[in-house]
Amino acid sequence: MTTTFLQALHRMEEGRLKRFFQRRLRNREDAADATQETFLRMIEVPQSTIIENPQAYLFQVAKSVARAASARRAAETGLFVPEEAGCVSADDTPGPERIVLGRQQLLLMAKAIEQLPNRCQEVFILSRLHGLANGEIAVRLGISRNMVEKHIIRALLHCRKVRAEIFF
């Protein structure tokens, strides 16, 4: 699947895909994240793969993302018990080794972000650290929303690669 075709598919189907996720996940932020995850997975499909019906394939990928998000939410639900339930929680204070390891990993990820091209880095920081919506970033930087999403996807792929090298 070519980049041009994927961009066209993104323009045509993004709205439908977000509505699909909002119905299933019932959370706007989760729907936006799941939409990006779906297109990220589409980018990772090998060029040699022949897809006869791209829209159907896109929504099959989206169903997989929705199932994973629902399963993750279900698993996390049991982890958090209200205090009034009388449960005593374990001490989550990290030990010195964990603190040092965490700081080292954070530095490596910061260096990974610094490796990104300037505009990509700027978009990623505005999105992930400052929590701005893609539309707000586009207006602030004077670029298209589509370009904002491309920069975010590029940064996420780079960070995912670096994180895989760090943790494995």
Automatic annotation (TrEMBL):
Gene3D superfamilies named in the record: 1.10.1740.10, Winged helix-like DNA-binding domain superfamily/Winged helix DNA-binding domain
Domain RNA polymerase sigma-70 region: 12-70
Entry's Gene Ontology molecular function annotations: DNA binding; sigma factor activity
GO BP terms: DNA-templated transcription initiation
Pfam families for this protein: Sigma70_r2, Sigma70_r4_2
Domain RNA polymerase sigma factor 70 region 4 type: 109-159
Keyword terms of this UniProt record: Sigma factor, Transcription, Transcription regulation
Family annotation (InterPro entries): RNA_pol_sigma-70-like, RNA_pol_sigma-70_dom, RNA_pol_sigma70_r2, RNA_pol_sigma70_r4_t2, RNA_pol_sigma_r2, RNA_pol_sigma_r3/r4-like, WH-like_DNA-bd_sf
Top-level taxon of the source organism: Bacteria
Annotated signal peptide: none
Keyword Transcription appears in the UniProt entry: yes
Annotated family: Belongs to the sigma-70 factor family. ECF subfamily.
Name of protein: Sigma-70 family RNA polymerase sigma factor
